[in-house]
Each structure stands twice: as structure tokens, then as C-alpha cells.
Amino acid sequence: MGHSKEKTGEKVDIYRDTWVRFLGYANEVGESFRALVPVSLVWGSYAVSTMYVTADAVDKGRKAAVAHGDNPGRTTRVAVAVVDTFVWQALASVIIPGFTINRLCAGSLYLLGRTTKWPLPVRKWTTTAIGLSAIPFIITPIDRSVDFLLDSSVRKLYNEGEKHK
User: Fold this and answer.
1) CA Rg, the chain, in Å?
2) What Gene Ontology cellular component terms go with this record (predicted)?
3) Angle, CA of 66, 92 and 61, to the nearest 5°
4) SS3 call for 119
5) Closest Cα partner for 32 from 118, 133, 115, 123?
6) Shortest CA distance to 18 belongs to which of 50, 66, 59, 67?
7) Which of 57, 32, 47 lies closest to 124 in space, CA to CA?
8) Fewer CB atoms < 10 Å away: N or C end of the chain?
9) Angstrom distance (rounded) from CA 134 to CA 90
10) Considering the entire predicted model, what is its pTM?
């Protein structure tokens, strides 16, 4: 992740280019394990993801503040950076993938119960494996969909052509 940017001289974004990015996926892991663990652990995984989203939004606000110095409109630019990042991350890292994995796992557990005679623990572990294995496949389509959604809606309101990096 970060090594290729370090070698080319690009600045590494800790929230996008390092292992820290995986904290945004904590709730998908939690949802995958929902059938096996207490629900408090699932909600804890959402807390981790939400902290990641908030930290990234604050970071992008700080970067926007530095980039715009004392120029007029600085406060607006900072607010836009924070809100855009927070909304994008909340949708792409927490809400949509959490819902997707939750429904995939619930559906899998239901279907396994209706179509197999496997014992409940085997069905629950199978459901967890299905949820975990789906995570890499849902990330890019969800990211692209959220880009399209924001580009087609709120980003038009604040005239932002660029995404906050």
C-alpha cells in the first residue's frame, strides 16, 4: 500500500494508503461474525469504523485548512472537505457495506437452514465465511457507486469537481 507512494515521492495518506484503511472495514468483519458473537461486539466494530471515518474527515479538514491558509473562503473549504469526506466514508465504509454484509449473512444463514441438514454451528461458521469472503468483492463497486451518488448530488451543491484526498 504505502510503499509504492513512498518510493515515488508522493505523500502517503495514513488513512488511505496504509493498514489504517482496514479499520474502515471493521464493521463488515463484525457483521460477518454476527451469528457467532454477542451483538455488543458487532456494535463495537461499528464504533471502530466510525472512529476511522471521523479521523479521516478531520484529517482532510486539517489538510484543507493548511492548503487554503488565510485565503477568503477558507472556512467554507475546510467545512466542505470535512463534510464531503465524512459523508463519503460513512456511506462507502460503514453504512452500505455493513448493510450488504448483514443481509448477505442473514440470507445465507436462512438459506442454509432451509436447504441443508447441517448443524447450526456449521451453518453459522459457513455464514461467517461467506460474509468475510464477500468483503473484497463489494468494496470497489460500493466505492464507485458512492462516488457517482455524491458527484450527482451533494457535490453539485458545493461545486466540487474534485474528491478530497
Assistant:
1) 19
2) mitochondrion
3) 10
4) coil
5) 133
6) 59
7) 32
8) C
9) 19
10) 0.86
Write out the three cell numbers for 120.
447450526
Using the structure block, give the residue that is written with the C-alpha cell 479521516: 56
Is 102 within 8 Å of 32 (Cβ atoms)?
no
CA distance 64 to 25: 25
What's 162's DSSP letter?
S
Enumerate residues 6+ apart whose C-beta is below 8 A from 69.
none
> What type of residue is 75?
T
Cell of 83: 463534510
Q: Among positive and negative, which fits the CA dihedral 45, 32, 105, 36?
A: negative
Type of residue at 143: D
- What's the CA gap between 71 and 65, in Å, rounded? 10
Q: Tell me: the pLDDT tens digits for 77-132?
A: 999 999 999 999 999 999 999 999 999 999 999 999 999 999 999 999 999 999 99
Distance in Å from the first CA to the final CA of the chain: 15
User: 42 phi and psi, to 5 degrees?
Assistant: -65, -45
Q: Cell triple for residue 44?
A: 463495537
